[in-house]
Predict the structure of Uvr/rep helicase.
Amino acid sequence: MSPELEVLITELEAKKTDEKARLEALRQSFAELEARILKLEQDQLERETKKNRKFQTKCIQIAKEILNEDPIIKYHSLFLNELELDAFFQKYRIALEVQGLSISFIV
């Protein structure tokens, strides 16, 4: 083999090694970015859950003041196949279900 071809082969092998290292670094960066995205999504979901819980508590408190009755919290209704409702006011037979910014009263 000619010396020129040997030099070219050596250069190409060096480039191949460099590209493999670069590819591995990109894979590592990609994995780190995926992990960060997953953490951000989990944090956002956790914040929304906390916000919804606060909203739910506030809605129950408002209904409690309006109806002047302490509700049963986390009520399981027999007529709704044990579906869990956020609050049930026995005197008025009103159930309260809060889903995000949507509130349902079941009479």
In short: The mean pLDDT is 86. The chain has one domain: 3-106. The longest strand covers residues 83-89. The CA atoms of residues 97 and 103 lie 6 Å apart.
